[in-house]
Amino acid sequence: MSSKIKKIAVLTSGGDAPGMNAAIRAVARSCAYYNIECVGVYRGYEGMMEGDFISLNARSVKGIINKGGTILKSARSKEFRTKEGRKKAHTNLVKEGIDAFVVIGGDGSFTGALLFNKEFNFPVMGIPGTIDNDIFGTSHTLGYDTALNTAVDVIDKIRDTASSHNRLFFVEVMGRDVGHIALNVGIGAGAEEILIPEEDLGLDRLLESLRRSKKSGKTSSIVVVAEGDKIGKNVFELKDYIDENLEEYETRVSVLGHMQRGGSPSCFDRVLASRMGVKAVECILEGTSNYMVGLMSDKIVITPLKEAIKGKSKINNELIRVSDIMSV
Ligand code: ATP
Q1: Section 69-83 average pLDDT
Q2: Distance between Cα 112 and ligand 1 center (Å)
Q3: Of 17, 73, 192, 297, whose Cβ has the fewest other Cβ atoms within 10 Å?
Q4: Range of 178's domain?
């Protein structure tokens, strides 16, 4: 592959997600394969503005494919949102001889990359790294599969204690805008009800469903609640509401929180990260810029960053139907 590109930078930005390290490794190794240099940028755009770079060769990314978090660290940078901030970052990239960058992050990170490209005509590619799976143009973001497995594992454990004490547990999982985690984890862990931002189940229906489930002989119940569900009450208020209206239940709350972001990436995320990293580098070398690498029907595809940012990743209605049938 002949190209004018001689040095590519890679950075992780926004919230961390399992699989980011595997993607860094894939970018660094692809650069080595194509005989170009690779530079890691510490702390996302913050490090880019400070010139906090590290040279990465094929060997410097050894032993990280199985590690959670990101060896390059991540950050949210206010200054990069300003033109002056981005100018500083550009000056540092040019000084370092960097010709393009790959950003692993969410839609905020892609917005920054797109602006940067417009202002400096600098080649950029995006890899979606976020556990929420809320990015248009890919069926899976990096870290999502691992987060699902982590959450299912924990809910299985909660189920043990719930059934020992005949309890009802509200389990809050991540997902401010989309219910992918809640819906999949809810089905996978056999939850009685699943509350997601895309659907307003309503308190009456929730009560009715829990009463029905008690009557049908269930001794414990799990309700999986996405952070951003639309029922109008947070998970603790929901508990209070059920305590007041369904005395037959003893209720508890468990907020899974940041544990969902951590841990060793699943095999799926490691393979996905490797495929995405290779594609991102190959796109840059072929002269493609302003695209995000994604997965659709098990094929690696690219989507313009502009569309990835604007589009919405939709919940699978078939899963909603399956979850309704399973909670009979
Ligand atoms: P997550 O999905 O985990 O929140 P994200 O990439 O969406 O990841 P953000 O905090 O929204 O996370 O964005 C990461 C960084 O991208 C910001 O800290 C900022 O530096 C940059 N960024 C976000 N939006 C813009 C913008 N409109 N203009 C310039 N830079 C931006």
Answers
A1: 96
A2: 6
A3: 297
A4: 146-261
From the CB of 77, is ligand 1 less than 6 Å away? yes
Task: Evaluate: CB of 116 within 6 angstroms of ligand 1.
Answer: no
pLDDT tens, 149-196?
999 999 999 999 888 888 999 999 999 889 999 999 999 999 999 999
- Whichever domain contains 159, its CATH number is 3.40.50.460
Residues 6+ apart with CB under 8 A from 34: 1, 281, 282, 285
At 110 the pLDDT is 98
- Strand-pair category, 37-41 with 53-56: antiparallel
The response to whether residue 186 sits with its C-beta less than 6 Å from ligand 1 reads no
Asked whether residue 213 falls in the same domain as residue 88, the answer is no
Pocket of ligand 1 contains residue 327 by CB under 6 Å = no
- For residue 76, report the distance from its CA to the centre of ligand 1, in Å: 6
Which of 24-38, 98-112, 206-220, 269-283 bottoms out in mean pLDDT, i.e. has the lowest?
Answer: 206-220
Domain presence at residue 1:
no
Rounded to whole angstroms, the Cα distance separating 219 from 166 reads: 5
- The set of catalytic residues is 132
Across the range 20-35, mean pLDDT stands at: 98
Is 212 inside any structural domain? yes
C-alpha 107 to ligand 1 mean position (Å):
7
Q: Is 305 left (phi over 0), alpha (psi -120 to 50) or beta?
A: alpha
Ligand 1 centroid–CA 238 distance in Å is: 32
Residue 47 CB–ligand 1 contact under 6 Å: no
Q: DSSP character for 195? A: E
Q: What is the model's pTM?
A: 0.96
**Which residue's CA is minimally distant from atom 6 of ligand 1?**
106
Query: How many C-beta neighbours within 10 Å does residue 63 have?
Result: 10
Quote the CA–CA distance of 295 and 302 in Å, as a whole number.
Answer: 8
117 in ligand 1 pocket by Cβ < 6 Å? no
Nearest CA to ligand 1 atom 30: 112
